Amino acid sequence: MRAPIDLHCHILPGLDDGPTEQADSVEMAAQAEADGIELVCATPHIRHDHDVRIYELHDRVEELNAALRSGGSRVHVAGGGEVAETAAEALADDDLRAVSLGGGGGWILLEPRPGPLSDSLARAVEHLAERGYRSLIAHPERHPSPALVERLAELTKRGALIQGTAAYLEGENAPLLYLATHGVLHVLGSDSHSSRVGRPLRISAAIRRLDEVELLAPHIEWIARGAPEAIIRGEPADPPFAPAPP
Q: Is residue 243 part of a domain?
């Protein structure tokens, strides 16, 4: 299998609740490289409680890439953002494109509001679709409810894909396995915020776990690399498997 791609990572320093200094960002890239990851999407929070200036993001990404190259890292950082459901509609067209994953202008990493998924998330997906973007729904494991599988399946019918946090596929009682077995998990991200605390920038263990899921095992290459590549290029990425009823 080719190297996986991390579609959700708070690797840019001094912006949101990610690393406070570039040295930590460089260490995060070292974690990625050790895990075989060579491409990471920088996805700072785009929401009211973080003062992220979208017009600065391109230069911030280039600055970090220059530091990584000078240190001999093989990791490349692509642009993006984690856009809050409550912020998506207010973003200007140029800003929305600037925070699209990979800058490809096709996909937005969409963060649901806290609590169970609701009709407002579906409306945000529809709003983005009207503006020419498909949605990648972030960390569904944070929104447990009896109707979660049905809600996610409905979002996929609207053209969305679902991105799970890799760390939640590790361990004996991995909460994402339930979603994986029901076919409402499509790609992974580390959602790492620092090399020093919290989730590591690591995906390979989660990929191996998904390879044990009967429904997904034939499609591991698509999950780890095919779909993320298409998303970063701004191209369609239609799942090769369908949701299974709970």
A: no
Q: What is the mean pLDDT of residues 72-88?
A: 97
Kindly state whether residue 238 falls inside one of the protein's structural domains: no
**What b/e sequence results for 89-110 when a residue is b if at least 16 CB atoms lie within 10 Å of its CB, and e otherwise?**
eebeeebbbbbbbbbbbbbbbb
Per-residue pLDDT for 190 more than 80?
yes
pLDDT for the residue numbered 220: 97
| pLDDT tens string 116-151 | 999 999 999 999 999 999 999 999 999 999 999 999
pTM greater than 0.85? yes
Q: Which CATH number characterizes residue 84's domain?
A: 3.20.20.140
pLDDT, position 193: 98
